[in-house]
Amino acid sequence: MSTMKTSRFYYQTQSMLLLGPTSATVQITDEDLPPTVSIADNTSSESDGSITFTVSLDNASEKDLSLTYSTMSSGTAETTDFVAATGTLNFTAGDLTKNITVMINDDTTDEDNETFMVVLGSYQDVRQGDDTAIGTIQDNDNGPVISIADVPTINEVGAVQTSRVSLSEASEKTVQVNYQTQDGTALANNDYNPVGPVTMTFQPGDPLFQDIPLVIIQDNRDEQK
């Protein structure tokens, strides 16, 4: 927006005779463009409690200016992961930066890093630059503990027995573990059918346990357990 500036020139006569007006007004038109505003991405851990975004002007202005901001959950973060925020930023003449702080929530769920956006708008005496920032919430939770249960003592019946693999808690990530049988006093292909190596996969939302089938081979030998 252009503005008009004025200045005045004065002169004095050396006699009592005034020849005309003693001042003149000169108008100076401001042709400089308003500053451009942008907002920067940022990352914080869940445990930090907040993410701060810096909003910057590319040069200072002699005018007061303003713009609005709002958060959007259009990334991977859900509305429960951060506190929605809207507001107005007011830059007084000479200001170059302002900060926007968004509160984030710490949870106990093992999950991937999540993102949301902060978007600028409603510009007053300022030009639009990079108007969208990505906020990344880094997960700070440990993954579940994985364990396997012993197979109960069984007789040679030629049946299928199971060993249960369990997760200590749910995860929003895909959890994988490799397994295979290994001889002890029992011998593969003699006392049992070998298994593996096999990859077991727990998808988000799956039950917290899976069973490994083990086939016991029946023979007629007298042998130690």
Structural summary, described in words:
- The chain is mainly β.
- Helices cover 0% and strands 44% of the residues.
- It contains no helices and 16 strands.
- The chain has strands at residues 4-10, 23-29, 36-39, 42-45, 50-57, 65-72, 86-91, 97-103, 114-124, 127-128, 132-138, 146-148, 160-167, 175-179, 198-202, 209-215.
- The strands form 5 sheets. It has a 5-stranded mixed β-sheet, with no helix packed on it.
- The chain is rod-shaped and about 135 Å long.
- Report low-confidence residues grouped into runs of 5 or more: none
Shape: rod-shaped
Portion in helices:
under 10%
Q: Strands of the biggest beta sheet: in what spatial order?
A: 4-11-9-6-7
In short:
The chain has 225 residues and is mostly beta strands.
Could you give the topology of this structure?
Blueprint: E1 4-10, E2 23-29, E3 36-39, E4 42-45, E5 50-57, E6 65-72, E7 86-91, E8 97-103, E9 114-124, E10 127-128, E11 132-138, E12 146-148, E13 160-167, E14 175-179, E15 198-202, E16 209-215
Parallel strand pairs: 3-10, 4-11
Antiparallel strand pairs: 1-2, 3-5, 5-8, 6-7, 6-9, 9-11, 12-13, 13-16, 14-15
